[in-house]
Design a protein that fits this description.
With 147 residues, this protein is an alpha+beta fold. Helix content is 52%, strand content 16%. It has 5 helices and 5 strands. The strands form 2 sheets. It has a 3-stranded mixed beta sheet, sandwiched between helices. A two-stranded antiparallel sheet has the order 1-2. Helix 2 crosses helix 3. It starts with 8 loop residues before the first helix and ends in an 8-residue tail after the last strand. The C terminus is likely disordered.
């Protein structure tokens, strides 16, 4: 399957806000852009994927299952971008940190207690990801510089 390389973060933001608010004008107010810009971005995204995301009615935008899937994915994408920025910052600052990822709701409490105990030790920073990795514990390993 060919990747839809023309997808932009702004497309995902617009879809996510329209999904939540279900109103063009209110979405534009929240996002501080014009209703035309919201509409254009949504239409662009729909053209890229070749599917409609919303039923447009007089009462607003009614999202379909495809819109729901796009919103779920955009949340994971945002978390991955945030994690990437933390990783870049830690690499740049040459800090030691541990990246912990998990996918089970049942271990959240135990995981946080463990992290709090470890956090008391100085010089250790954490990146915690829920549901975004295959491994439960994924320690960061600094790659050797290639010369």
């Amino acid at each position: 399957m060919k990747r839809k390389s023309n997808i932009k973060i702004r497309h995902l933001d617009v879809v996510k806000n329209l999904y939540k608010i279900q109103n063009l004008k209110n979405t534009s107010d929240i996002m501080s852009i014009t209703p035309a810009a919201v509409s254009k971005s949504c239409i662009e995204f729909e053209k890229i994927i070749g599917k409609n995301l919303f039923l447009r009615t007089r009462n607003g935008f009614i999202p379909n299952d495809i819109a729901k899937r796009v919103v779920e994915s955009s949340i994971f994408i945002e978390k991955e971008i945030d994690r990437m920025l933390v990783d870049i910052d830690n690499i740049y600052n040459d800090q030691k940190y541990i990246n912990i990822s998990f996918q089970s709701n049942s271990i959240i409490s135990a995981m946080m207690n463990c992290v709090l105990k470890l956090k008391r030790k100085k010089g250790i920073n954490f990146s915690i990801n829920y549901g975004s990795r295959d491994h439960i514990f994924f320690p960061f390993v600094k790659m050797a510089k290639q010369t």
